[in-house]
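It is worth pausing here to work through a concrete case rather than discussing structure prediction in the abstract. The textbook approach is simple: state the sequence, then state the predicted structure, then interpret. We follow exactly that order.
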Amino acid sequence: MKKTLLASLAASLLVALTACGGSGGDASALRVGTLGDAPPNIYVENGNYTGFDNELLKAIAQKQGLTLEFAATEFSTLLAKVSNGQFDVGSSAIAQTPERAKTVDFSSPYNFEVMSIQTKEGAPITDEGSLGGKRVAVIQGTVGDNWLTTTVPSAQAVRFPDYATALGALKSGSVEGYILDQAIAEKNVTENPDAKLKVTKSFTTDVPHGFAVKKGNTELANKINEGLKQVIADGTWERLHQQFLPSAPVPDQFKAGKNS
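Step two, the predicted structure:
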């Protein structure tokens, strides 16, 4: 009788643990695909996925009562994983391009793309006109990749799956230049003083950043958009921008009180 009672209690406990997510994560949490190595926009610090984009998404989720569960991936596979449902949201300073819009839907814009040409001090590169014939690092599938191949087709684009390996190639001298987001380029300079890196030239584009969701998931896109309006209106957007991207300009549409 005692054994039967113990077995019954054990079975009940197992069911309770399973219902509470004891054997895995929160089943109701939105799965967010992001990068772990691209500060200040998206990166991991002390085991926490942070950066401007991820903290902004967390603030939006809080406004809308959403729960998030972050996981790292490579940028080159991020949109495909959102498209096939492996991730509910893609958060990675994703530039909204017509080509990408064929694969996923995007939230309303929450920032704009500012690109840079990064080199080591003393490199014979001053602007896009001097990239011809040079080995230049880009992150595969990004706006930087497209910009280099269309603007300077004579440059040799060397494609990398993530920011860390591209930076390593620049530091080692296996590439002479690197095309990437301005904020990440500036961070590379301050965090790698011995490498003697510099931002050779920066330029603002009209390409907006957006959070990616699966095609047709208008319910989730609408919640993100509504939360975005709220965090812009109450000044959260500007606070996070000042924290992570202090040197970048703040477009009028993201200033506190807008979209209220």
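Step three, interpretation. The two ends are 65 Å apart (CA to CA). The mean pLDDT is 88.
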